[in-house]
Specification:
Two copies of one chain form a homodimer. The first copy, chain A, is α/β, with parallel strands linked by helices and 490 residues long. Chain A folds into three domains: 2-82, Arc Repressor Mutant, subunit A (Orthogonal Bundle); 122-140 and 383-489, Aspartate Aminotransferase, domain 1 (Alpha-Beta Complex); 144-381, Aspartate Aminotransferase, domain 2 (3-Layer(aba) Sandwich), CATH 3.40.640. Chain A has helices at 2-6, 16-29, 41-48, 52-64, 80-94, 98-101, 105-108, 144-154, 157-160, 173-184, 202-213, 228-236, 279-291, 347-361, 366-377, 380-406, 431-440, 471-489, and strands at 68-71, 75-78, 130-131, 196-199, 220-223, 241-244, 246-247, 250-251, 262-265, 295-299, 324-329, 341-344, 411-412, 420-424, 443-444, 446-447, 461-465. Chain A has a seven-stranded mixed β-sheet with strand order 4-12-11-10-9-5-6, with helices on both faces. Chain A has a four-stranded antiparallel β-sheet with strand order 13-14-17-16, covered by helices on one side. A two-stranded antiparallel sheet of chain A has the order 1-2. In chain A, strand 1 (68-71) and strand 2 (75-78) form a beta hairpin. In chain A, helix 11 packs parallel to helix 12 (228-236). The interface between A and B is large, with 115 and 120 residues.
């Protein structure tokens, strides 16, 4: 009994009476008391740290409602009619072995996605002095005041009706306009309203696309190493995948793409090697897409994070033949919590995706769509990107310096930006081995193993992210890491 | 320049500053000014018929955000860094036959979900004087101040870090607690943290569930008439469906459920007939679920909208054997735009659903999760439900009255609540026929045809929703409708 009662977490949102009564009704329903008396008012009051009067009032109201009866000098009991009900159902229950009555879930689950290998993110990364991890934004950069201002406008009485009802299967027209005019245009892309769809981020765009396009006989070419979640989504749809080889200009064209129906690429900064696809390679890829009849899915990943040159226009901007489906998001540039992404595709494709999206979850929350539209429209997104670029540039320079100084034995991919560096360890050192030693020295790094598709992939790649680590910790962290690598190498 | 500026039609939807600023950012983005100065504050003020001060404030804020620079004695110019960015342009023109190079999308689309029949919602419903439609909330009821208060708390500087980064594959622990303590407990359900998952609403919960559980050999029993979107989701997964017959206590038990693997029900108010499943039927359904080894999916739909009696505890609350998966949402009770739903299931199931959700879209936006948690925690959700119930009760009584008075020839299902009435027209009148005549008289009603599964279903059912229509229009609208029915009947 005591255990049950300890579960009442009394709060101030409703009266104690109400909360206690609610819990007692639940317990009575569950036949927790049988034919034993309920704890006395005084005992119960002590247990719950409320006044005795509160308990008495609750008990009396339960008597009025026929849940309890009061027996003189013995206390309060569950009403026999109720007990009878429970006895009956209990008897029926006794006839069955309880375990056998429960569904056999391991048989019923058609898939067990939790068995898929995942990047094990250490949730306690902030406890490490040197967290060289990837995928965290620097929260101090979030434009609090500007976001609040836009949120306040969207939530004002006169504006509310525009989003409270939701958009059924449509998007916020203001957000579509802003994304077209201020985000896509900067990537060289011009798209009509019916060629753009708002999603819940890149992950969701890719999921919607594979739901529509994947099938047992449809081959997806994926970069190797590449984005593990993309491979997981495709494998959910039973589509065969072909790992694509890369060089220092992006994926290698020619033979390896010939039998692909879709080729998934990250041209701005290849995930995870950070290699930028050259303009010549972009043009040639589109030419081959026409000749060999494949469609390119462009994840325009970290296009905003370019520190040394003007960014190359998106692959989509060179696309004259509708051969590119373009995917972008605000997760890396603004906040992954808000979950706003977008895709650009042929209007036939967008129409079907819109219907699918409607069946999957209706639409991305309309308040977030509207706040984001205001945020972009007021110029806050652009100025935020500019500020962010400056902040991260300082870190990136520090990283370059430290890697040059301390990671001499490693193979480094030169890069024009991104939030990370992709690093090949000297032969004989595995990433897992270094990861463990580094953790002991307060350094958090990521193994690249899971980003390779084939089981016999190289085991000596690591990714060093720098969005979470403080600028002044970078050099010191890399120095220690370099020492650890050198020690392992000897 | 002048032409551009003439395009700003200032309205009262937002401040002039905001509108002018937005337009200027757009013009800057389009490189409309080049290296010329922007019009002076005075000139611009004259053009737009606003005060000069307004323009000065806008210009200054654009300087702060790095869009403009002020040059002494020369005025305001676009920041040179921005102009440089615009030199990026691509003029790739290819001389190919365009059509033949484009992908053949009709061949590539693995499904065309847009071909599925849908409820045709008239987007211009508010133009009808008598919109007896379903699924719209009364926006005037939305608790603006309370929502804004919670939004302000969630967006305060000290709180921001809790959601800006997102939750990876987890949920806001505060929201889980609030849903358990304040929503599920009122439905008689006690669930552990790892038995609850936040989703983007009921549609999304059902989609995640079918993604995990459906398969060619798995039979889903669905209520008939019933929720059309559920049937569409199940058909996406190629699972066979079995239409289930109903009586005035809910779905009929026995033979028809025997071969089902899953039985999907809406016990609070059956969709669309509004019939409430009796307690005896609930208990017997669970008993049969054990004996015939099926699992019940309970969509606890409109449980808050009960006008004449205390609501019956959820089916899930009677479930001793883990035979019920429970689905609920805040879409009908608070706002469909915010897209917050939840489900309760065995922790094994929740674990796999969580992984699937992560692959589909990561998680419902974390800011909305937090705002909703605060909103429930502050007791605002409960008091909103109470207010809402009072508002709709008045409408519901008016509906009852009008239907009794004017729809004498129709078959009416008595009900304890819901936002609609399910009405059988006199023999010989089809819903489509009435729908057209009614529309000519300013009355919007919904045909029930699409809610039936079989093609030879009755064609004489309509649904009359009352959440959108004004209370004082109800009687008058029903009077006209009754007259139209009588005319068709003669």
């Amino acid at each position: 009994m005591v255990d049950f009662l300890m579960n009442i977490e009394l709060n101030n949102d409703s009266t104690y009476q109400q909360q206690i009564r609610e819990k007692l009704v639940e317990l009575i329903e569950q036949d927790s008391f049988g034919d034993k008396p309920l704890p006395s008012g005084r005992k119960m009051a002590q247990l719950l740290k409320v006044s005795r009067n509160t308990i008495v009032l609750v008990y009396e109201s339960l008597v009025d409602e026929g849940y309890l009866i009061a027996r003189k000098r013995s206390g309060f009991f569950v009403h026999p009619d109720l007990s009878l009900e429970h006895t009956l159902s209990n008897t029926v229950q006794m006839l069955h072995d309880k375990a056998s009555r429960q569904p056999n879930w391991s048989k019923r689950l058609q898939k067990t996605p939790s068995d898929l290998p995942t990047l094990n993110k250490d949730q306690n990364w902030f406890n490490y002095p040197y967290p060289f991890i990837y995928g965290h934004i620097d929260i101090n950069n979030f434009p609090v005041c500007q976001w609040r201002e836009c949120s306040r406008i969207a939530e004002s009485k006169g504006k509310l009706h525009e989003w409270v009802e939701g958009f059924i299967d449509m998007d916020d027209p203001q957000l579509i306009t802003q994304i077209r005019q201020q985000i896509l245009s900067k990537r060289g892309i011009s798209a009509k309203n019916d060629e753009v769809l708002i999603t819940l981020g890149t992950q969701n765009s890719l999921f919607l696309l594979t739901s529509l396009l994947a099938e047992k006989s449809v081959i997806f070419g994926v970069e190797n190493p590449g984005y593990a979640s993309l491979r997981q989504i495709i494998s959910l749809c039973d589509s065969p995948m072909k790992p694509l080889e890369l060089d220092n200009e992006g994926i290698i064209l020619g033979e390896q793409l010939k039998d692909c129906n879709y080729v998934c690429v990250t041209p701005s900064h290849q995930y995870p090697t950070t290699v930028t696809m050259s303009i010549d390679r972009r043009k040639a890829l589109l030419e081959q897409a026409c000749n060999d009849n494949f469609v390119v899915i462009e994840d325009d990943y970290e296009s905003e994070v370019n520190f040394i040159e003007a960014p190359i226009p998106a692959l989509k901007s060179y696309d004259q033949d509708g051969r590119v489906i373009y995917v972008g998001s605000l997760s890396k540039s603004l906040s992954p919590g808000i979950r706003i992404g977008y895709l650009v595709a042929d209007k036939k494709v967008v129409k079907e995706l819109r219907t699918l999206r409607n069946l999957h979850y209706r639409h991305p929350p309309s308040n977030n769509q509207r706040i984001t539209a205001l945020f972009i429209g007021q110029g806050y997104y652009d100025s935020h990107i500019r500020r962010m670029r400056r902040t991260y540039e300082a870190k990136w320079i520090e990283m370059q310096l430290g890697i040059d100084l301390y990671l001499k034995n490693c193979k480094i991919h030169s890069t024009s930006g991104s939030f990370c560096f992709w690093i090949g360890l000297p032969n004989g050192i595995t990433s897992k081995e270094l990861l463990n030693v580094a953790a002991e020295h307060g350094i958090l790094i990521e193994s690249g193993d899971i980003l390779f598709m084939q089981p016999d992939a190289p085991k000596n790649y690591i990714r060093l992210g720098f969005s979470a680590i403080q600028t002044d910790k970078i050099l010191k962290g890399l120095k220690i890491l370099g020492k650890l690598i050198d020690d392992l190498y000897q």
